[in-house]
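Q&A log
Question type: sequence-to-structure
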Amino acid sequence: MNPRELDSYLQRIGHSGTCSASLETLTAIHHAHACSIAFENLDPWLGMPVHLEPVAVHDKLVKNQRGGFCYEHNALLGAALRTLGFSVTDLAARVLWNMPAEMIRPRTHMLLVIDLGGHQYVVDAGFGGITLTAPLRLDLSTPQATPHGPFRLQPTPIDQVLQAEVAGEWQPVYRFDLQPQLRSDYEMASWYLCNHPESVFRQSLMAARPSPAGRHVLRDRQLSLHHLDGAKETQNLTTSAELRDALRDIFGLDLSAVSGLDERFDRLP
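Response status: OK
Response body:
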């Protein structure tokens, strides 16, 4: 990022604190990004292309007040951290969340690892309804607190498994190793997620955003708030106006340049 892009990014996420390459800065920016820029899949759901070039990602998520999915979120976050002097490695993960235990998925998720002060930290602001809101030390297998619940990293003989504590039980989120990835790797995986007819990004409307109250999640017409104490509120949005209001007011999306929404809303089950 150039200085102007960095300033606009920090303004977008509401970060006005320290910008040194420290754990304090990393923790603050990770949390601010996750809580300010929503996860959403409007473009692939509408059949529109997703561009991963740095300028396109910055324009969409910062200038145009939109959200995105993991490749966009973590590319933007990684670019900002690199500009601030952090050592960042781009990685890929196999999603386990809500999948049968025996299913082996391709590496379709992007995450980051930060080398800082002799330790490595997992940073990920783009995993939807269960996304991290704080860095996790990679060399710890014990539970680590975040503003939105405990997580832990469980080593296996070949990789690491990220787990989240949900309703008192540890649930697998994804597994990953430390092989660096290139943008061309993400371009191929992104094309698959955006174009394969069985991809969930094509089939379902999704949005998610953590807040001080908990985790807000939209799946098609169902809007949920998962409170920090484990309670859950759910409502069904029956009209296009209600869906638009939720995407604008709860998830903070500017929909002014998104065409074809109402027609697609009407086809939701």
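Response note: The longest strand covers residues 107-116.
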